[in-house]
Design goal:
2 domains, 2 strands, rod-shaped, mainly alpha, single chain, two-stranded antiparallel ribbon, about 80% helix, about 375 residues, Rhopdopsin 7-helix transmembrane proteins
């Protein structure tokens, strides 16, 4: 059973309720209060757009076989919303200013809603195609209204939002709310921390769109729904930061494992090289001593065959020398088998061994040497 962090829900519900109560109270006490501050507003929207685009980038790399399609649909929503928020941040107050904000919310709500019906049996390329289609659509729509501002419908009338401006926010509010509820249900089933996070984000976005519907430009409710979206940005930044540190930690672990594997491989290579060197040395030693001794012993035994009918004394002498030579060979072989070097290889009794070999060779018939 995975740990199920309820803190995001508690924080979201408490903060959202607090923002709604505060905005309602301030509007009741100061209904005519306005604060026209374009630089602060543009900064909040620009930061929100960049965070949304960064979150989309992270989501495109996240997820397993079960959640990959869902996260890519969320990535599409974040990407479309982030692009249009940047258009909104640089737009001048007016109809286009409000339209870009509405379109950003609508694209984000659609992306969140699509996360619950990802295309069945689609591969990675098809899922990425949906993301780039959403991004291309946002860029085309934003560029169209920038190039042709005369086509922008009336969004503000007498200082208040028109029904055409409120309608997209209402749809986005419903989409975010439904997606948040579905993510909450999925979180209760799976216990994945990401589901808890995105349920919180969806709920905050839904509250922000709800406050927008009842606000007018630059009043306290206007700023409060920006505060809600800024809260969502902070949650998304926390997710991005956690993913970044997780990737960094994984890379560090992978690097340490690679270095350990390299060290183990170097040690194995050194041992293998030593084994080959020992094998080469053993082969050379066997050729220089044991094989030559066996060859000389064979010659002595052949000479015994010829002497057996003539001189028994010579045969006995030859057999005695052959037995001694055979014992020497056996001793050398036993040393090789148990990992020991032969006395000759170590330089011990080299003179005696050479004398024995020369004696054997002299006693052997010359016709055997060619």
């Amino acid at each position: 059973m995975q740990n199920r962090p309820l803190v995001p829900y508690v924080v979201t519900v408490v903060a959202g309720a607090g923002v709604l109560l505060a905005s309602a109270a301030l509007h009741f006490l100061w209904p005519d209060w306005r604060w026209h501050h374009e630089p602060l507003h543009s900064t909040i929207e620009a930061v929100g757009g960049l965070v949304a685009i960064a979150t989309s980038t992270v989501l495109l790399q996240a997820g397993n076989e079960v959640t990959a399609g869902r996260y890519r649909m969320l990535a599409a929503g974040f990407l479309g919303m982030g692009i249009l928020e940047e258009f909104h941040a640089v737009a001048q107050p007016g109809n286009g200013f409000v339209l870009f904000r509405n379109l950003a919310s609508l694209f984000g709500g659609i992306g969140f809603a699509m996360a619950w019906r990802p295309p069945a049996r689609t591969d990675l390329s098809d899922q990425r195609r949906h993301v780039w289609m959403m991004a291309s659509g946002a860029l085309l729509v934003g560029s169209w209204f920038v190039l042709f501002p005369n086509h922008i419908p009336e969004m503000v009338r007498n200082g208040e939002f028109t029904p055409l401006a409120v309608a997209p926010q209402t749809v986005a509010c419903i989409l975010f709310l439904v997606t948040g509820a579905r993510l909450l249900a999925e979180y209760r089933r799976s216990g994945r921390a990401e589901d808890a996070l995105f349920a919180s984000l969806a709920l905050i976005y839904s509250l922000a769109e709800f406050v927008f519907i009842y606000s007018i430009p630059w009043d306290n409710r206007w700023w409060f729904w920006h505060a809600l979206r800024l809260m969502a940005c902070l949650l998304a930044l926390g997710y991005i930061g956690r993913k970044y540190f997780q990737v960094t930690s994984d890379l560090q672990t992978a690097l340490e494992q690679t270095l350990r594997a390299k060290e183990i491989l170097s040690q194995s290579e050194a041992r293998l090289r030593q084994m080959f060197d020992d094998r080469e040395r053993m082969a050379q030693d066997l050729h220089d001593s044991t094989i030559q001794s066996l060859f000389a012993l064979g010659l002595s035994l052949e000479r015994c065959q010829r002497l057996v009918a003539r001189s028994y004394q010579d045969v006995a002498t030859q057999l005695e020398q052959a037995v001694k030579s055979l014992q020497t060979v056996i001793r050398d072989l036993r040393g090789y088998i148990f990992g020991l070097e032969s006395p000759i290889a170590n330089g011990h009794a080299l003179e005696a061994a050479l004398s024995s070999l020369v004696n054997d060779m002299n006693n052997a018939p010359h016709r055997h040497f060619r």
